[in-house]
Amino acid sequence: MKKYLCIIALLLPVFCVNAFAAASSVKLVKSNDGKWKMTVDGRDYLVKGIEYSADTVGRYPNSNDWMWEDNDDNGRIDGPYDSWIDSERDNYRSSDGNAVGDFALLKAMGCNTIRIYDSENINKELLRDLYRAYGIRVIMGNFFGAYTKGSGASWHEGTDYCDETQRKNMRDSIRKMVLEHKDEPYILMWMLGNENDSPGEEVNSTKTNTNAVKNPEAYAVFLQEVCLMIKQLDPNHPVGVCNATVKFLPYYNKFAPAVDILGFNQYAGPYGFGVLWNRVKIETGKPVLITEYGCDAYSSAKKSEDERFQAKYHEGAWRDIEKNSFWGNGRGNSLGGVGYCWLDKWWLVGSAKVHDTDLGAWKGAKNDGYFHDEWFGICSQGDGKQSPFKRQLREVYFTYQEKLWADDITQRE
Question: Distance from CA of residue 271 to its chain's centroid?
Answer without folding.
Answer: 20
